[in-house]
Amino acid sequence: MKRMISMALFCSVLNCTAQQWQKDLDLGLKEAAQQNKKVLLFFSVPEHCDTCVKLEQKIFKSPEFLAFASDNYVLVKIDFSYEQEGLSKDQLEKNLLIVEKYNKDGFFPHVVVLNKEAKIAGKTGVYNNETPQEYMSLLKKNTKS
């Protein structure tokens, strides 16, 4: 019995932490198509945007959101921080094109949901300190099937 409980706990922890943020939208879209999911595209610039940090800490790192996202989304983060670890010059240029296409007004944070065809299926608008449950409801309400 103990072993079954330990295994269930391990699997639930693994499921919640397995969802990693992609840095490449093309890879995220391919993964979403393979898994029949949408892409949650998060634009962030944490050094200059306290709201970006709050959204990531309070929502995107919460166990509730991670469980919800693992069933529904491939997560892609376009991060314009000074320390863009591991991004090539080509990827940085691609990120600028992605901003032009999906975040023309340059709002940060900005969250867009894309369907498998890379078309906008929804947006969340401004983050107003919602709880993870409220934010997930907002995503559902503002996203086309």
Please characterize this protein's 3D structure.
With 145 residues, this protein is an alpha+beta fold. It is built from 6 helices and 4 strands, in the order H-H-E-H-H-E-H-E-E-H. It has a 4-stranded mixed β-sheet with strand order 2-1-3-4. Helix 1 (2-18) packs across helix 4 (63-72). The relative contact order is 0.18.
Report the average pLDDT across residues.
86
Residue windows where pLDDT falls under 50 for at least 5 positions: 1-17
**Rg (CA only):** 16 Å
What is the helix content? 40-55%
The CA-CA distance between the termini, in Å, is: 41 Å
Sheet bearing the most strands, described? Answer: 4 strands, mixed
SSE class: alpha+beta
Q: What's the arrangement of strands in the largest beta sheet?
A: 2-1-3-4
Count of individual helical segments = 6
Q: Give a count of the beta strands, DSSP E runs of length 2 or more.
A: 4
Order of helices and strands: HHEHHEHEEH
What's the overall geometry? Answer: globular
What is the beta-strand fraction?
15-25%
